[in-house]
Amino acid sequence: MPINIPRELPAGEILKQEKIFVMDEDRANTQDIRPLNILILNLMPEKEKTELQLLRLLGNTPLQVNITFLRMATHQSRNVSEYHLDNFYTTFETVKQSRYDGMIITGAPIEHLEFEEVNYWGEMQEILEWTKENVTSVLHICWGAQAALYHHYGIDKFALPKKSFGIFKHSLSDPKEELVRGFDEEFLAPHSRHTNVSAEDIKKHPELSLLSLSEEDAPFIIMSKDKKHIMITGHLEYDATTLADEYNRDIKKGAKIDIPKNYFPNDDPNAQPPNTWRSHTHLLFSNWLNYYVYQQTPFVWK
User: Fold this and answer.
1) Is 192 labelled as part of a ligand binding site?
2) In this chain's numbering, which residues are marked as the site (Important for acyl-CoA specificity) (predicted)?
3) Is there a binding annotation on residue 162?
4) Does the predicted model carry a pTM greater than 0.85?
5) Which CATH class is domain 3-158+195-238+278-294?
6) What are the catalytic residues?
């Protein structure tokens, strides 16, 4: 089944070329079906790239999904046009009287800041509180995961001595959990972050389950025991070339950065990196939509 997106969203044409079933709003309104309503709070600087990455995954399930993109009203984005934001995004003030079956909160390049130093942290807290009663399940990614752990469970992040950057092996603690159904017991995933959270703090918390650790013993997939909040500390949604783009960007800035681990063939930055995590990414998103959103959300919100 398709994802329902605004008619002129630039990602739409690329998705159609990739043979992902996309339906515009006019056709969707004629469908006699209860679609899932998914809210995406996109905090990434290159918003159009993130839109495409997430829509590609949400469009690969048998469920019809309506998408709403959310921006922060208290922050001015510098890497996307006002036209794009005005036409395809809304603000929390507009949606806070609505209820959503699922929500995705992306990462953001602000790890160096304490949460209270982020200029939109107050608005972020309001949104996180609102999700408790108005969203069936929330998928938090990277900084979004750290923000959720801090706000909901009091678990703070800490700085790493060196950026965790590359493709890392991960293991599962409970392969029977529905979120990771179909996963290999060892799998690969991208990371790109300067901070981490404590595995011990998560294991000790009575409301949290740690489903996956990286080879560096860093938490990767964390879930609340009520299955409402899912925190992914890495970037399964990344394209094959995203880490290369980040590496080249930082090199041009003159930043001191290592080549991403286990990424470029023979550690050659001129070589094309393979996508070695795609199948598990699709599994996670389809499992989330099926088991934690579709099978849990009420047919009619009251």
Assistant:
1) yes
2) 111
3) no
4) yes
5) alpha beta
6) 142, 235, 237
